[in-house]
Write a structure and sequence with these properties.
Number of helices: 10
Low-confidence stretches: none
Order of helices and strands: EEHEHHEHHEHEEEHHEHEEEEEH
CATH topology of the largest domain: Rossmann fold
CATH class of the largest domain: Alpha Beta
Number of domains: 2
Radius of gyration: 22 Å
Strand content: 25-35%
Mean pLDDT: 90
Helix content: 25-40%
Number of strands: 14
Length: about 300
């Protein structure tokens, strides 16, 4: 996949570009449908499937107080786009100058003159340009003028509920990772390097853990204990993940620590991916470390039972 941080002259580099417009936070099931249609249309016209998106999220520039935490890191999103068949990613830095472009100029100058779009695909509620005045109706009106085919993807529903990033954020904030996965199309996850922790899991509790620092720009599920699937060098292992501040030990720093079942190798400095598949319980403060150990033993037993179900 080709990654660009500008749009100028892109039509000179790639033929018959079909472009999807959007923020694509989380690349949930609705976004995946849109990208699937993008790739299919590009194949039909013998063209190049491309995505035009922004980083940072426009709200971080226009209304920072309303800017939502992200569901995917930029690195994870790029990998996901490539996996879905996107060949060109226009990841444009969003700033106040760009926010001032009128919808009409965006269509004429960016999409037509520089990108050379022969097809445009958007979601039903997509808006663009200064003050968000650009709409699907305007794109439809100008598609004949600039010679591109427009496709508008209707809302995707799961059990009668429209899929949206806002809905998914609410579920994750409540720790409902299994429900969130229905709308994401995958289990929510974090990726990162295993760092040195305080060694309590290994030396005090008897349950060694892999510690990950939390990226403050990402929405991590609510504090609690989760059944997790940990991906390491192409292999997967079940584990018990704790998200929180370890209240039994009166710490203040929120982090993620994972105890892997039947895994005994050192992981310091290794990049791992932790998928949260089910919330086992809320985070709780125990009176003594021994009470916490007993609870962890119960968590591990429950995690083993759940892992066996998932293997069947």
């Amino acid at each position: 996949m080709h990654l660009y941080h500008h749009w100028r002259g892109i039509k000179e580099k790639h033929n018959n570009i079909v472009v999807a417009l959007g923020n694509f936070d989380g690349l949930h099931i609705g976004h995946q449908k849109l990208i699937s249609d993008l790739v299919a249309l590009a194949k039909k016209v013998g063209g190049t499937p491309a995505v035009f998106t922004f980083h940072p999220h426009p709200l971080t520039v226009l209304k920072p107080e309303k800017s939502p935490p992200l569901l995917l890191s930029q690195e994870a999103k790029q990998k996901f786009f490539a996996k879905l068949g996107v060949e060109v990613l226009l990841q444009i830095p969003f700033d106040l100058d760009f926010s001032g472009i009128s919808p009409e100029d965006f269509i004429k100058t960016v999409l037509h003159e520089e990108v050379g779009a022969c097809g445009v695909i958007i979601g039903y509620n997509y808006t663009f340009g200064r003050y968000g005045r650009g709409t699907p109706a305007l794109l439809e009106e100008l598609s004949a003028v600039y010679g591109f085919e427009l496709r508008v993807i209707p809302p995707i529903q799961i059990e009668g509920q429209p899929v949206s990033s806002t809905l998914i954020r609410g579920l994750l904030a409540s720790g409902e990772v299994t429900a969130a996965a229905k709308y994401l199309g995958y289990y929510p996850f974090v990726e990162g390097e295993v760092v040195t922790g305080e060694q309590r899991g290994r030396n005090i509790l008897g349950f060694p853990t892999a510690n990950l620092n939390i990226d403050q720009t990402l929405l991590v599920p609510a504090n609690g204990v989760y059944l997790a699937k940990v991906h390491i060098d192409g292999e997967s292992y079940f584990g018990v993940a704790n998200i929180g501040v370890k209240p039994t030990f009166n710490t203040n720093s929120r982090n993620i620590e994972v105890h892997l079942l039947d895994f005994y190798k050192e992981l310091y400095g290794i990049q791992i991916k932790v998928s949260f598949t089910k919330r086992l319980r809320k985070e709780k403060k125990f009176e003594t470390p021994s009470e916490l150990v007993k609870q962890i033993e119960r968590d591990v037993l429950e995690a083993r039972a759940e892992s066996l179900k998932n293997k069947e």
